[in-house]
Amino acid sequence: QKEVEQDPGPLSVPEGAIVSLNCTYSNSAFQYFMWYRQYSRKGPELLMYTYSSGNKEDGRFTAQVDKSSKYISLFIRDSQPSDSATYLCAMSAQGGSYIPTFGRGTSLIVHP
Amino acid sequence: DAEITQSPRHKITETGRQVTLACHQTWNHNNMFWYRQDLGHGLRLIHYSYGVQDTNKGEVSDGYSVSRSNTEDLPLTLESAASSQTSVYFCASSESRAPNEQFFGPGTRLTVL
């Protein structure tokens, strides 16, 4: 079993839909949780970053962490065609190298 | 503007050849990383460095090497390219050892025939 599991999709939704992207993990030491967005043939870029449990909101994006269930989510409201990309979750533990472990990424397609 | 660049962007080589992929960042970041990205596996860490003369093995380091002679560059060398090393390679950098944003380069698409 991988430390971080993420459904690769693709997830296809109509413009304006609310999107929910999720990851599960097995390492209870993970404290830092990140979402990266990767457009086709580009490098990933950081979208959201949270520490420990709770929610964080940034515009149309909300990141949610449930450490008791080892489950994190990224919600996108009012999705746009420009949101079409691959979304990778990443997480790291406190102390040590802090190097993140990445999920496989979920491909999202928002069609007009 | 500060940036991270990779070259070449595309490379086709033959099995057994030595290949070097370049990574250059102008943020003056201490930390630099090399990943490979394959369908079904996501991003996997090959090697990383916390500073000049420091290198460390990642999850999939066999067949790869790096050296860090200055802050800006971390070249990745495939000693004897194999077809299993056909992949997209990403270089990344970050400011400090504490968890924070990694800045990724645009990637190098390598094909080993």
Describe the structure in your own words.
- The complex is a heterodimer of chains A (112) and B (113).
- With 112 residues, chain A is mostly beta strands.
- Helices cover 0% and strands 56% of the residues of chain A.
- In chain A, the strands form two sheets. In chain A, strands 2, 4, 5, 9, 10 and 11 form a six-stranded mixed sheet that branches.
- In chain A, strand 7 (61-66) and strand 8 form a beta hairpin.
- The radius of gyration of chain A is 13 Å and the shape is globular.
- Chain A starts with a strand and ends with a strand.
- Chain B has 113 residues and is mainly beta.
- Chain B is 0% helix and 51% strand.
- Chain B has strands at 4-7, 10-13, 19-25, 31-38, 42-51, 54-57, 64-66, 76-78, 87-94, 103-104, 108-112.
- In chain B, strands 2, 4, 5, 6, 9, 10 and 11 form a seven-stranded mixed sheet that branches.
- In chain B, a hairpin with an 8-residue loop joins strand 9 (87-94) and strand 10 (103-104).
- The model of chain B has no long low-confidence stretch (mean pLDDT 94).
- The interface between A and B is medium-sized, with 21 and 22 residues.
Average pLDDT of chain B works out at: 94
The low-confidence runs of chain A, each spanning 5 or more residues with pLDDT under 50, are none
Structural class of chain B: mainly beta
Number of strands of chain B: 11
* Major sheet details of chain A: 6 strands, mixed
Strand content of chain B: over 45%
Overall pLDDT score of chain A: 93
Overall 3D shape of chain A: globular
Assembly level: heterodimer
Query: Distance between the terminal alpha carbons of chain A, to the nearest Å?
Result: 37 Å
SSE run of chain B:
EEEEEEEEEEE
Rg of chain B, Cα atoms, Å: 13 Å
Q: Given the C-alpha coordinates, what overall shape of chain B results?
A: globular
* Element string of chain A (H = helix, E = strand): EEEEEEEEEEE
Helix content of chain B: under 10%
| Fraction of residues in β-strands of chain A | over 45%
Number of strands of chain A: 11
Radius of gyration of chain A equals 13 Å
Tell me the structural class of chain A. Answer: mainly beta
